[in-house]
Protein: DUF2946 family protein
Amino acid sequence: MDEDVLAAMKRWPDVPSVCGWLSLDPRGNWRLHPQGDAAAGGLGEPITNPRILDFFARNYAFEEDGRWYVQNGPQRVYVRIDVAPLVLRTGDDSITLFAHTGQPVGRVDSWWLDDTGRLLASTDLGPGVVIDRDLSKVLDGLQDEKGEAAARPLADGETPAQLKYEPLPQSLAPFHEVSSEELPARLGFVAVP
Structure:
């Protein structure tokens, strides 16, 4: 977090948090809900100012209970999560994974395929959804323990397939199927704080 944000938190420790003003869409776009009605599911207004977007990226964090927020000075602004708290993209090399905040993914602990065809990952940064435009590139990089193309994910009750994303120097991670309604509980985040 920014030094001035940390200083403001120390200076004013009891500023109440707010909900309903921010959301994060499936493509990693921040949206403002000027009426404070993000929980109602509305689209909101796009936030496009580069300085604000950079500020959000540097000051986006989560609490242990799975609520994600932007620390805006001394105030926490909780975020409605439309799919996952992070949106994962490939870098200029078309294979390195980055969160929408610009942070590189260093590890994937599990892969998830939901019932709408979205690919998600539990990463060292938190849970993220692979942005639709990079989905085929990431799927092409998934390999099983023999180095072959990814197998289908297995449902609950079956032993999950183990996959590795070739660009990451890590061990294999389980590959699961999940319904989109179960995503928050299974990946450990609060969609609507």
Helices lie at 3-11, 50-58, 135-141, 183-187. Residues 84 and 128 are 5 Å apart (CA to CA). Residues 3-11 form the longest helix (9 residues).
